[in-house]
Structures are given as C-alpha cells and as structure tokens.
Amino acid sequence: MHFKLAFIGYGTVGQGLTEILLEKKDMLEKKFDFQWTVVAISDTMKGSVYDENGLDMKKILDLVKAGKKLNEYPSGKKGMDSIETIKNTNANTIIEVTFTDVKTGEPALTHIKTALKAGKNVVSTNKGPVVKEVLNLLDLAEQNNVFYGFEGVVLAGTPVLNLAKYTLAGNKITGFKGILNGTTNYILTRMEEGTAYEDALKKAQELGYAEADPTGDVEGLDALGKVVILTNVVLGKKITWQDVERKGITEISKEDVEKAKAEGKRWKLIGSAEIQPNGSVKAKVWPEKLPLNDPLAGVGEAINALTFYTDELGPTTIVGPGAGRRETGFSLLIDLLNINRES
Amino acid sequence: MHFKLAFIGYGTVGQGLTEILLEKKDMLEKKFDFQWTVVAISDTMKGSVYDENGLDMKKILDLVKAGKKLNEYPSGKKGMDSIETIKNTNANTIIEVTFTDVKTGEPALTHIKTALKAGKNVVSTNKGPVVKEVLNLLDLAEQNNVFYGFEGVVLAGTPVLNLAKYTLAGNKITGFKGILNGTTNYILTRMEEGTAYEDALKKAQELGYAEADPTGDVEGLDALGKVVILTNVVLGKKITWQDVERKGITEISKEDVEKAKAEGKRWKLIGSAEIQPNGSVKAKVWPEKLPLNDPLAGVGEAINALTFYTDELGPTTIVGPGAGRRETGFSLLIDLLNINRES
Fold this sequence. Notes:
2 copies of one chain form a homodimer. By secondary structure, chain A is an alpha/beta fold. Chain A folds into 2 domains: about 1-155 and about 325-340, NAD(P)-binding Rossmann-like Domain (Rossmann fold, 3-Layer(aba) Sandwich); about 165-320, Dihydrodipicolinate Reductase, domain 2. Chain A is about 40% helix and about 25% strand. Chain A contains 14 helices and 13 strands. Chain A has helices spanning about 10-25, 25-30, 55-65, 80-85, 110-115, 125-145, 150-155, 160-165, 180-190, 195-205, 215-220, 220-235, 255-260, 325-340, and strands spanning about 1-10, 35-45, 45-50, 75-80, 95, 120-125, 150, 175-180, 245, 265-275, 280-290, 305-310, 315-320. In chain A, strand 12 (about 305-310) and strand 13 (about 315-320) form a beta hairpin. Strand 13 of chain A pairs antiparallel with strand 13 (about 315-320) of chain B, so a sheet runs across the interface.
C-alpha cells in the first residue's frame, strides 16, 4: 500500500517515527511492499505545511530540530489548521500525536473522529481517547471501513495489543496481569537495593522517567488507564475509570521491601483484570508481593511486562520497554504495518 | 477461507487439534471467517479414511480413543497411504503430524515436499524437516504459492515464530537467547531447591517430561535443533547442527547451583545466536549463570522463554509453555489462522 501520511502534532514521537521511516524506507518497501509519502504536518506551535506531492522529510526534520517553524519550508501550502489538514488534504492516513489532555481526551478525540468519519485511517499514541471511548472509536472505524490503531498507548513499542489480537489469536483471553508503569517499577527496583522511596523518586525524576508532579505514576493512575484500555480492547468488557480499584506505591516502606525480600518475594505495582464466572470483570491496580518464580518478579528497572491468561496456552508473558521517544514512534509503524497487511 | 484438511499421521497432537477445532468451530467461523472440514486421515497404525464431503470428526475421535481402526468408520474410502492421501484427495491443506526420525526428517520431509509440489498448504509440528532444510521448504512453498507453517516446532503453542514475523515486524532482529527445553529447566528448578541432579531427572521422567533415555534433553540436542531453526528462520542465516557449540547440564553439580545462588544468580541452559559484525553467526547451547534481573532467570519449572534482540525495542521476551499435547495441537491452529489471514 502507498501511505499518504499527515501528522497532526509533530513533537518527539512524530519525529521519532519520521527517523524510523527514513532509515527503513528501502526495507519497508522490499519486505512489506510498504510505501509512504508525508503530505502534510500541522502543529499548533510549529505551524503547518501541505504538499499533495509529498514533503522532503529530511528537510523537515532539519528545520524542526533547528527550532524553526514549518513556514520556513521552501514550498507547499502554509497555515492549515488540524481539522483542515485532516479533511482537506489528500492524506489517506492520519498520525495523531498532539499534546492531549488525558482526562478529556481533547483535542485528539475530535481529530480522530473527524478523520475516521472522513474515511481516513488513524494511528495514534494518545491514551486519552482510548481510555475514554475506545469501543465507540473502533465502531466508527469499522463503519467507515478504515483502521484505528493505538498500539503505543499501552506499552509504547512493546506490541501487547498486537500480541493479543494476532499472535494469540484462537485463544480465549480471560484475564491479564502486568507491570504497566516503568517509573514505579524503577523506584521499586532501587528500593530493593536499599534506596529510600524519596531518593528513588528523585533519581527517577532526574532520569526523566517521572514528572515533577509524580502523582500520575506513583498513585497508579497511569497504570489504571492501561487496565481500562486492555479490559475494553483485549477482554472485550466495557469498563471505565470508576470500575478499577486502585492503590499506588507511596505507602510501601523500606521495611516492607526488606520483609518481602526475606520471604523470597518482590513488590511490584500490578495492573490486572479477570473475567469472573458471572461474566463481570474484577479490575485493579495494587501493589503485590510476587514470588520470585513469577515471570513478572524478575522484571526490573523501567521495563514493563504483561501476562495474558489464555485457555489454550495458560499464562503467556511478554517483556519489553514501556516508554521512550523512538519506541513510541515505532509503535505507530506497528499500526501502519497492520493496515498494510490487512489492505 | 474453507479449509479442507487431511491429517497425515493421527497421534495425540492431531487429536488435540481436532478437539480444539470441534470446540471452537463457531468462534472460528464468526471471528475469523474460518471454516473447516476434515476430508481424510492416513496413519500407518490406525489405517486411513477419505470422504471428499468430510468426515464426522466426533465419531473419528470416539473410534480412535476406543483404540479402534479407521476402517471401522461407517463410510468413505479406506486404505489410501499417506502419499495417495496427499496427492489424490480434495484436501487443500495437509496437517503433517507423523512420527518422524528427527535426524533424517523422514517420512515427514517427503510428505511435506509432495504436498507443497501438489499446491497444497502444509502445517506441521515435525522438527526434523525444519532443522534439515527449512529454507528449501519455504522456497518450495513460495514457488507453489502455498504456505508452510511450523510454529509448533520451537516452543509448541507459544507463538515465537509468529511473534518474530508479525508482531515484531519492522524491527531488525540481531540475535536471540532462550530457555528452549522444558525438561532441563525443570531439572535445574528442582536442583535450585536442593534436589540432586539424578533425583531431579528421575522426577522429570516420572512426570513424562524426560524420556527413558534423556540424552536429547540433558545434553542440549533438543535445544540445539531449536537454535538451528530460529537462526535460519528468524535471523535469516543458514546454519546447520555442526555450526552450534553445545554443552548440556550433566556436569552441573549441586555445589555449582549453591554457589550461583550465593552470587544472586541462577543456572539456565541457554540456546542463543547472535549476528556478528562481519555478518557471520555465533550460535550455542550452553549452561549460563544468569543474574536474577534477567527476565529469563525467573522462568522456572518446565516453562520456556525466548528473548529477541531488536533494533527498535531492545530485548523483547516472551514466556510460555514449551510442550504439551493440546498446546502443540494449538500451534497448528496458529498456522492455519495465518493462512486464513493471508489468503
């Protein structure tokens, strides 16, 4: 397939994908018959540019990395906003990577709906719209005979949604359990070595894992969003934020960690959901002491992992990165490769 | 797609697949537009039966489980041998699950070649043909515009080949490292608890994990075959048995295990291969002392695991079962679902 791409938002993730597309252009064409042209970019800060015949993405990267605006690109139409770019360009696939409010899901939610209604594929790393109304969006995509991909919203480039949908196809997945937040896992790994919570958090902030306000990570809100997404998408059960029991890691003391160690166990912040015999779902984010023979117990640092419970294979676990600019950019390529395979 | 299936060989794996196909018939049709009829079975011990309109597989399972021959099936043509069944029936897909010599790959190798040349898809759990000449067989499949699937030969139903081909698509995979043999991992797990090697082996034999002659497992030959397969198929590098350095677990003493434990490490029999800077491959099966923060270190009992080294995601690991009658039967369904998706 020949993708005519439009970026809505053009921050680090979009730039990461651009680098991958440029570096892998030949391989993608030879191995997957995957061709691409970027026809438009629209970003609230950087401006916008559209050329139906395609933009020179090396030039674009140079401009953006030099802190310049897209207006300085030597040709093409300037000044189209995001909605115009979605509706009034020849792009067949929209890459939605704007800076979005996780709670309202905006402006990504509006962008995604507009694109799907216009019969354009959407790939996006924005979590808000998925948490808020993933099943609606998937319906909308189906009605318009296009694809909505969001692999990156759970574990960045570690392809957990793909694993569930394609690689584990034929299994009934009845539940999952995972380390869904890298920051808290990094903090717990340091505490395991004897570092106090406050110092471990400080280190995580220095490394850029944790925000200045770390609430979203350490209180389990980030993991909770991922539990909602996985429950809706993989287990096929409609739940929202309110349906998930939640406790973060802030009450875990150095003594708790030492005590677990003495028992041959390790604290991990676990996001999980399980379909109950009556068909309902029990979902939670909670610190758990795992025995060392649990595949999740050995997963340290900022690495993430997810175990699916399946009827044919029993527990099946994937372990990989859960964040990162290039890894998250790569998740968009996974979605694009799926569109390519299915069309 | 409507699969018209012929089983060549009909032991526990074929029967396991039959159970899955019967139990999941409705789901497969609804979810994947996957329809199937078994038109023929040919087994050297159980006899053979062919009906171009399809066999009643519940009846067949009852017959076989009662220790009866296929001749007692009330209708259909009897007495066709495996080659006739492959060539002269209306089957479009051959399920090759005969009892086969791992070294020569026969009779599976002849069956697979015959089927591919006749323009029929093949799915098979036989390891011999894959170790011996997988690249030839894949070429032959491509020339005849059909599919040759063998997911089950590495880790039974844990979909490592699918993971590499579909879910990790877009990555360059530069190496792998895994626990590829359940029996030795079971033995090492028991030794970790203080059991002596001989007693752990005896227990593995009692549980049916290890054969009466355990050489294939404990000397690393089984894992070696899997290293050859993964190197050829996933890394795309042609190697054979002779190219793999090998050492089993028989020389690991209770003291070695204790010593590793004191160092915070664990012995695992690791199969690995890595593409070298000059393009050659270094492949081996060797006992390694892993630190506890290696995702493979936490994988105990008869469970298997495989880490792929990728350019975009770094190390990405999958953990799941590596054997079992139903799990291996399920691996054939994974291959059939791929054919269904691609056709």
